Amino acid sequence: MKLRIMEEFNKVSKVFINHYDDYNLIHHSKVDQDNMFIVVEKFFFRNSSRASLSIVLTNKESYCEATIIGSGGGQGMIFKFDWGAANSFQQSIKGILERNGISFTEY
Questions:
Q1: Report field, pTM of the whole predicted structure over 0.90
Q2: Which CATH architecture has domain 2-106?
């Protein structure tokens, strides 16, 4: 999923890092002055599955671009499917932005 976020790069990165601090924030770092990479993982005990997000934030002239890739899976021979958990986790990005009053468009 790609989003064009109508807010400055530093504010968007802080919103994501602060929100996902409650989850298992695996990694966040600036790749260079205009790019940040964030990896988040969430474990679900009820079905022994996990979902993860890889987020790349890119600073553009008048907006911030976010590329979000979700993945997930379970344990065992039958439960290696994510059953939509990765997509749901990926779509939650929109809610985070909306709750913080940040406008965006998906493309």
A1: no
A2: 2-Layer Sandwich (3.30)
